[in-house]
Amino acid sequence: MTILPGRRLGPYEILSAIGAGGMGEVYKARDARLDRVVAIKVLPAHLADRAELRERFEREAKTIASLNHPHICTLYDTGHQDEIDFLVMEYLEGETLAQRLQKGPLPLELVLQYAIEIADALDVIIQAQTGCGAAYIPYFS
């Protein structure tokens, strides 16, 4: 399911597609109430009819809403309209890692900085979901 620019989901007007992954499609949108740009993650129609995936989407929203971390997007809102479930999140301007790597390899100090920032954010997420940090989960040991 592709949502075309100009379509509205509640007060959010879709501006353009950003990307897609296994559990969602992401769009750049404008919040008409607060006059700001946001990112909207939509649960695709082919997944929305599966109760366990809708529940997973809802759990994701609750987990994100409970987090406050500089390297995790803020969740602003959730919604359901015309059989479309969606999350409204902070929109971050910039290039993707894939786009940056097309310019050449990253300096080692930047790779280490990114790795630390990502690991720190993952630890916060794991703590929110399990009640303990990554160091205490066998997979990460």
SSE diagram, text form:
Elements (H helix, E strand, L loop, with lengths): L7 E2 L2 E10 L2 E8 L4 E7 L2 H4 L2 H15 L9 E7 L2 E7 L6 H5 L6 H23 L11
Antiparallel strand pairs: 1-2, 2-3, 3-4, 4-6, 5-6
Structure description:
This protein is α+β, with helices and mostly antiparallel strands and 141 residues long. It folds into two domains: 93 residues, 2-Layer Sandwich (Phosphorylase Kinase, domain 1), CATH 3.30.200; 47 residues, no CATH class. It is built from four helices and six strands. The protein has a six-stranded antiparallel β-sheet with strand order 1-2-3-4-6-5, with helices on one face. The N and C termini lie far apart (40 Å).
Number of strands: 6
What is the general shape? globular
Task: Give the N-to-C terminal Cα separation.
Answer: 40 Å
Could you give me the name of the CATH homologous superfamily of the largest domain? Answer: Phosphorylase Kinase, domain 1
- Radius of gyration (CA) equals 17 Å
Low-confidence stretches: none
Summarize the structure in short.
The protein is α+β, with helices and mostly antiparallel strands and 141 residues long.
Please describe the structure with a list of short key phrases separated by commas or semicolons.
alpha+beta; 2 domains; six-stranded antiparallel β-sheet; 29% strand; globular; Phosphorylase Kinase, domain 1; 6 strands; 141 residues
